[in-house]
Write a structure and sequence with these properties.
heterodimer; A: about 240 residues; alpha/beta; Rossmann fold; 6-stranded mixed β-sheet; 4-stranded antiparallel β-sheet; about 25% strand; globular; disordered N terminus; B: about 750 residues; alpha+beta; 4 domains; about 55% helix; ABC3_permease_C (chain B); membrane (chain B); Permease (chain B); Macrolide_Exporter_MacB (chain B)
Chain lengths: ~240, ~750
């Protein structure tokens, strides 16, 4: 599927001619992209191709040099730093390769933190966090600190945190990259389940198995450009 | 170049900010230490040097020449403990008059053949010695504030003897106010004989007492008075001692802060540099070399800061020392070299010692553990606190900030200790300033005395009508008239003033610190220093020579008073000395709503000159300025400590901060979190620092008062009121918040993408 054959379903992500330069280096070179609600899109490509930069500009973690990025109706180019923070808080959930949990907080508080920052009272935030941990199968580890969790458990906690504010878009940066194959499979199942209940998903990965298993569309990026797009039939 | 130096130099360059913090903190604290120790070291030095040079008298005793002969005195002075003796010199009290000074001070004049001798070798610094009748040499300090006479001036005694000034000499022993030839003194009706002694043992009061007892054995009935050089020495060092007391307090605080901050910087560098330590060890650095790298890393800025601080301390100490010893003519006096050397060596050593403990941690750290650092699980009370905080109703940025200090309790404790000392300094400074201001206002009777008035014709132009005129003037509420009369305490060469008061003493008189206000004939009140320096107590009597008669007065009170050579008495005492006199100075308090300027204008043309009261005393102003400067320095140092901790904490938590921003923490929330994390230390520091500061104030101020021999009412120590304490509590938070603000803003600007993807 390309931008030309997009349907009438509302777009969660709309990129138009996005370019990102770091000094003389061009990370993104005029990328246009549309992701519809409920889609699961995998971005693949060799190292240094611009995958992570693409994820960062969509998440509002980085600003493009030119072009526009609209996510769930928010034109990120029009938002200041505080606006971007509020955008991330309300619209985006992120999962990282190395989990990025706060070592000083137990699992439950790591998850509840996202809602508490949005002003949700601690008891409500904790209740919701516990529900999510329960759904993801790690409720029993709610009082455990990140350093004492296994890699899979950490990533489940990270996923729970990403889902805490019911984001319009879940972004995953190499979500299985730091996990062994068995745990990686579990995380793949989790992402698939989330997408099947309607969660829009954009993941950056090197892992062909993850892409083919979880994504409905794969975008390949080379030298900052979309080299190829393919639609997949999921098993 | 050795590997240790190479690695240490790289570490210094990598940690520019912490290097600068260590350098500045050590520099500031070294400056304070040099000034404090320098002042302490020289507080008696100039006096001792000058006194030894003059072979000043350890003891000067005045005897009644009607009761003892010169031969008896010479015989008694033959005691084995006497190293040298000068005299007997005949002594007369003479009121010298001049054409422009009809009523002069009574001077102690001694008959001496020459200025040299085994004791009290006079510094004849201008003119020549008196060699003929009619010549007089005046005792003048060449560095003194003003001179009484010039060469060629002529004075006349009440008996009509004319004396011409032929020289000016200086006696540190203060053996006389002037000297004439032995032949001339006989014509001045000498009433006393003075003997000047140097003892083999004279270092202590008890040695001096023992010596005096020996040389006056059998002569006590003839002894009129004596002066110990210890009193002169103490007086010379008095002003310096006052500075020293609070400078030492601030110096100790400064050094303590420096040690804490340096310890904090190094432990922070060790924690932040775990991986670096691991790499060093993997490269083949021995544990001792790693230790050396960390000590060198701190010593480089410490040595630089110390060198600059020592130089700056020397520059700053010079005007302070000159001010403190100006009475000795010690202009240009500096900090002794040994102080600079000791501080320049001692401070870096202290810094290195404070760095030693955390550096030892780096030394002990196993290489494998160091390289894999960062994933160690945490546990303990700190995490329980964070857990509890996360459940409170506080905004999450605030509760996260409140919990951060518990993640690194040791570092937090060091930072808090720096804040505690900072708040202690501010508390002490505010207390000192308030107490000294209260003292100054009480001494000057600020608020009480609003206008001063004098007879326009000069000191002797007062009349009975002056008082009545002022009483009747519209706006006069209270009126206190006074008259100063030069007198001489028998047995003491210091010039003394008898101040007679008439009027509303209860409203306008000096504050009575002990005893009571003099109300009857012959009763006097004096300042504490008068009592201390003359060895008197309330209830004691002494004789004063005023005019042509000798009068005995009794001390009935000690008053808050800076004029230490003045005796206060009720007007009824005037009957003993000047029955026909009138007040020549009036102090006035006005009725409410009366404009002092209008009141003074209204007195024009009445024969009285009205002026506003004098301003604050210079010394108090100097102390206040110095205290303020030192406080600012320490507050800056404490804020630098917080700044350093906030920077370390922010750097360590870059990943966490990036993550928090990625899940929607706004830049404002990041600032709130970081500032809160330090403000909580500031608040706790304030709560601890305030009582410590109050306690130090209660120790330092009475010590300063003792050093200055000033009567200080304990009520002036009660300066900390609720608004002041509230302000001080805010001081801790302010110090911490200011220190944390810059790192917080830097944290808020972190680029999330860079932070989260540089694993």
């Amino acid at each position: 599927m390309t931008m030309s054959d997009e349907g009438n379903e509302p777009a969660v992500v709309q990129l138009s001619d996005v370019r990102k330069e770091y000094g003389d280096a061009v990370a993104l070179d005029g990328i246009s992209l549309r992701i519809r609600a409920g889609e699961a899109v995998a971005v693949m490509g060799p190292s240094g191709s611009g995958k992570s930069t693409l994820l960062n500009v969509i998440a509002g973690l980085d600003r493009p040099t030119s072009g526009s990025v609209v996510v769930h109706g928010d034109d990120l180019g029009r938002l200041d730093e505080k606006g971007l923070a509020l955008f991330r808080r309300r619209r985006i959930g992120m999962i990282f390769q190395f989990f990025n949990l706060i070592d000083d907080l137990p699992a439950l508080d790591n998850v509840a933190l996202a809602a508490q920052l949005a002003g949700v009272a601690a008891p409500h935030a904790r209740r919701r966090a516990l529900e999510l941990l329960d759904e993801l199968g790690v409720a029993g580890r709610r009082n455990t600190y990140p350093a004492q969790l296994s890699g899979g458990e950490r990533q489940r906690v990270a996923v729970a945190r990403a889902l805490m504010n019911r984001p319009a878009l879940l972004l995953a940066d190499e979500p299985t990259g730091a996990l062994d194959s068995r745990v990686g499979e579990q995380v793949m199942d989790l992402l698939l389940d989330l997408n099947q209940i309607g969660q829009t998903l954009l993941m950056v990965t090197h892992d062909e198995r993850l892409a083919t298993r979880c994504a409905s569309r794969v975008i390949e990026i080379v030298d900052g450009r979309v080299a190829r797009e393919r639609t997949l039939e999921r098993a | 170049m050795s590997a240790v130096w190479l690695a240490a130099r790289a570490a210094v360059r990598r940690r520019r900010l912490q290097t600068a913090v260590v350098g500045i903190v050590v520099g500031v604290c070294t400056t304070m230490t040099v000034v404090a120790v320098g002042l302490l070291a020289v507080s008696s030095g100039p006096f001792d040097r000058a006194y030894a040079q003059q072979r000043g008298a350890h003891l000067s005793v005045t005897y009644d020449r009607a009761k003892v002969t010169d031969a008896q005195l010479t015989s008694a002075a033959a005691w084995s403990g006497v190293e040298a003796v000068a005299g007997p010199f005949s002594q007369a009290t003479v009121e010298l008059g001049a054409a422009d000074r009809p009523r002069g001070m009574p001077l102690t004049v001694a008959g001496r053949a020459d200025p040299a001798g085994p004791v009290d070798r006079l510094n004849l610094w201008n003119g020549r010695w008196a060699t003929a009748p009619g010549e007089i040499v005046m005792n003048e300090n060449p560095a003194g504030p003003g001179f009484r006479a010039r060469i060629g001036d002529e004075f006349t005694t009440p008996d009509g003897v004319t004396l011409t000034v032929v020289g000016r000499a200086y006696s540190m022993s203060r053996s006389a106010d002037a000297w004439v030839t032995p032949g001339q003194i006989a014509a001045l009706n000498p009433s006393a004989t003075q003997l000047l002694y140097r003892f083999a043992e004279a270092g202590t009061t008890s040695a001096m007492r023992a010596g005096e007892a020996e040389v006056t054995r059998g002569l006590t009935g003839a002894r009129l008075g004596s002066t110990s050089y210890l009193v002169l020495r103490e007086e010379a060092a008095r002003e310096a001692a006052t500075y020293v007391t609070f400078l030492i307090a601030f110096g100790v605080l400064g050094l303590a802060v420096a040690i804490l901050i340096v310890g904090n910087v190094v432990s922070g560098a060790v924690v932040a540099g775990f991986r670096h330590i691991g790499v060093l060890k993997a490269l083949g650095f021995t544990p001792t070399q790693v230790l050396a790298v960390y000590l060198t890393m701190v010593s480089v800025p410490a040595v630089a800061g110390c060198a600059l601080g020592t130089a700056l301390g020397n520059v700053l100490a010079r005007p302070l020392l000159s001010q403190a010893f100006r009475n000795l003519g010690a202009e240009g006096i500096g900090v002794p070299l040994w102080v600079s050397v000791a501080v320049a060596l001692g401070v870096p050593l202290t810094v290195a010692l404070s760095a030693f403990v955390p550096a030892m941690r780096a030394r002990r750290l196993p290489a494998a553990e160091a390289i894999s650092a960062g994933s160690a699980p945490q546990s303990g009370g700190g995490l329980r606190v964070q857990r509890w905080l996360s459940g409170t109703r506080l905004p999450r940025a605030v509760s996260l900030g409140l919990g951060l200090p518990f993640a690194r309790p040791a570092r937090s404790a060091l930072t808090m200790a720096a804040v505690v000392l900072g708040v202690t300094s501010v508390t002490l400074a505010i207390g000192l300033a308030d107490s000294l201001t209260r003292y100054q206002r009480a001494e000057a009777r600020s608020g009480a005395v609003q206008v001063e008035a004098f007879p326009a014709g000069g000191p002797d132009a007062g009349s009975a009508g002056d008082e009545a005129l002022l009483r009747a003037a519209p706006g006069t509420r209270y009126l206190l008239g006074s008259l100063d009369l030069p007198v001489r305490q028998i047995g003491n060469t210091d010039q003394t003033m008898l101040r007679l008061y008439k009027g509303d003493t209860a409203a306008l008189g000096q504050r009575v610190l002990d005893g009571r206000w003099p109300s009857a004939v012959g009763e006097v009140a004096v300042a504490k220093r008068f009592l201390v320096q003359r060895g008197l107590s309330i209830g004691d009597s002494f004789a004063i020579e005023a005019g042509e008669g000798v009068t005995r007065v009794r001390v009935v009170g000690m008053v808050l008073f800076n004029e230490t050579e003045t005796i206060i008495a009720d007007w009824s005492t005037a009957a003993l000395v000047v029955p026909e006199a009138f007040p020549d100075r009036f102090e006035i308090q006005l009725t409410g709503g009366t404009d002092p300027r209008a009141y003074m204008d209204a007195l024009r043309g009445s024969g009285l000159m009205a002026v506003p009261p004098e301003g604050a005393e210079q010394f108090v102003v100097i102390v206040l300025v110095t205290v303020t400067l030192l406080t600012l320095m320490l507050a800056v140092v404490a804020a630098l400590g917080v700044f350093n901790t906030a920077v370390l904490s922010t750097r360590e938590r870059r990943r966490d901060l990036g993550m928090l921003k990625s899940i929607g923490m706004t830049p404002g929330q990041v600032v709130v979190m970081v500032v809160t994390s330090m403000a909580v230390l500031g608040a706790l520091g304030g709560l601890l620092g305030i009582p410590i500061g109050v306690a130090v104030h209660r120790v330092v101020l009475p010590a300063m008062a003792d050093a200055a021999q000033v009567g200080f009412p304990s009520a002036f120590l009660d300066v900390y009121e609720v608004p002041t304490l509230a302000l001080l509590a805010v001081a801790g938070v302010a110090i911490a918040a200011v220190g944390a603000l810059m790192p917080a803003r830097s944290a808020a600007r972190l680029t999330i993408a860079e932070v989260l993807h540089n694993e």
